[in-house]
Design brief:
Blueprint (H helix, E strand, L loop, with lengths): L4 E10 L15 E11 L2 E7 L13 E4 L4 E4 L1 E3 L11 H8 L4 H6 L4 H9 L3 H17 L2 E7 L6 H16 L6 E9 L10 H18 L5 E6 L6 H13 L3 E6 L7 H7 L4 E4 L5 H10 L2 E4 L1 H7 L6 H6 L4 E3 L13 H11 L4 H8 L1 H6 L17 E4 L6 H4 L6 E6 L2 E4 L2
Parallel strand pairs: 1-4, 1-5, 6-7, 7-8, 8-9, 9-10, 10-11, 11-12, 12-13
Antiparallel strand pairs: 1-2, 2-3, 5-14, 14-15, 15-16
Helix pairs in contact: 4-5, 5-6, 6-7, 8-9
Bound molecules: N-(iminomethyl)-L-glutamic acid and zinc ion.
Length: 417
């Protein structure tokens, strides 16, 4: 659904541009007071100072919204989540509280593989209903575009099912959030392969990925490149095959140990490398050189009690950094945008302006969409967040609490508070 909308008396706060902002550019926001933003058929058609036309009938075919000086930002882009899954893993969380590590739980058959069992037991309606609930919560925190991954099927049928759920949510006429789909069949090796990882990769390349392409079910292909999961060589083989089939590339890289996944992302000119808790200096420079978006997921580091990714150093090295939540049932059962802002600014030493760019324009770039979303500029989608304050510093200051007043999707208003 797309609407005509005129927003006036806004304090517009936005990064500017149609591609990722790198390095120091990330801290440069445009702030405009007494601003008007016009949205026609869901697309921004004017951004500038109030002109008073809303008073003289010029906009009779538009909804009117008086922002009363509050901050108007681009809708947030959560560019890394796993929001379509069956079951929960609360028990696993309690084991981690007692000291067990994420990888040791995975190695003894828990972790991702236990969500795979629960997801395989779900049908389309159950998976869709649960995922739709997450989208509503995301929208209330200002998210207007989300990326979602498969990877809890690990067989042809269930991987396609997860992707069909995402397509169905994205095709919903009344959707509040656009959904971008990523194929993550290489998330773990399913039990039935008994550790025969190369054979499983062959199966993905021969039998699953072609079906994903034929049915146009995913734009990106991702891999969990990690010791004990998919090695650098196995990840390279899978991603080269994916690229040959027309997928754009993403990697879960250097999350648990410094394996070199960030370097592989640079070598393959992936769109993004994600997590990066242990990315080396050389690989950070290689990502900056190749324009690979460094997608950082501070909620996961927080939930796993791991050191945070070196966001400050990455920006200083000239990287384009994006922030995302990583919402998933295991390592990080949170899609909290407010807490993501707070952790990025407090523990990764990002400025508030940089964090805003990371959750808007650079999130859009991580999804190859910086030309159509992620900033408030003519030609982009009319996707916005209205804060309940004129001070955008509330975004990280309001720790873990929501300061979103209204989310606007393609010109349609969704009041929150
Ligand atoms: N690290 C791999 N994948 C997810 C976790 C998935 C899970 O634990 O279910 C992540 O990005 O954190
Ligand atoms: Zn992930």
């Amino acid at each position: 659904m797309a609407e005509n909308l005129i927003i006036f008396n806004a304090r517009v706060v936005t990064p500017v541009g149609f591609s990722a902002r790198r390095g120091r550019e990330m801290g440069e926001l445009c702030v405009m007071d007494n601003a008007t933003v016009e949205v026609t058929d869901g697309i921004i058609t004017y951004v500038g100072k109030n002109r008073g036309e809303e008073r003289d009938g010029y906009y009779q075919h538009y909804w009117h919204y008086n922002a009363r000086g509050k901050c108007l930002l681009p809708g947030f882009v959560d560019s890394h989540t796993h929001f379509v899954f069956g079951g929960e893993r609360a028990e696993e969380f309690s084991w981690r509280l007692k000291g067990e590590s994420y990888m040791s739980i995975m190695q003894r058959g828990g972790g991702i593989v236990s969500t795979v069992k629960a997801t395989r037991a779900c049908n389309f309606i159950r998976l869709r209903g649960k995922a739709e609930g997450f989208l509503k919560q995301m929208s209330a925190m200002g998210v207007t575009t989300v990326e979602g991954k498969s990877g809890y099927g690990l067989d042809r049928e269930t991987e396609l099912l997860q992707l069909r759920v995402m397509r169905s949510l994205n095709n919903d006429e009344h959707k509040r959030v656009d959904v971008v789909s990523t194929f993550l069949g290489a998330h773990a090796v399913p039990e039935e392969y008994g550790g025969r990882t190369d054979e499983y990769i062959d199966f993905l390349i021969r039998e699953v990925m072609p079906a994903v392409v034929q049915n146009d079910l995913a734009e990106f292909c991702d891999v969990f490149c990690e010791q004990g999961v998919f090695s650098l060589e196995q990840s390279r083989r899978l991603l080269l095959a994916a690229r040959g089939m027309g997928f754009k590339l993403k990697l879960h890289a250097d999350e648990i140990i410094p394996l070199g996944g960030a370097g592989l992302a640079a070598e393959l000119s992936a769109v993004s490398a994600d997590h990066l808790l242990h990315a080396s200096d050389a690989d950070i420079c290689a990502m900056a050189d190749k324009g690979v978006v460094a997608t950082l997921l501070p909620l996961t580091a927080f939930a796993l009690k791991e050191p945070y990714a070196r966001g400050r150093e990455m920006i200083d090295a000239g990287c384009a950094v994006a922030l995302a939540t990583d919402l998933n049932p295991g390592s990080c059962f949170s899609g909290s945008i407010p807490l993501t802002f707070a952790l990025a600014c407090i523990y990764m030493n990002m400025s508030i302006e940089e964090a805003i760019t990371a959750l808007t324009l650079n999130g859009a770039a991580a999804l190859n969409r910086a030309d159509s979303i992620g900033s408030i500029e003519v030609g982009k989608k009319g996707d916005f967040v209205v804060l309940n304050t004129d001070n955008y510093h509330f975004l990280p200051y309001c720790i873990g609490m929501n300061c979103v007043n209204t989310t606007i999707k393609e010109g349609v208003l969704y009041p929150v508070l």
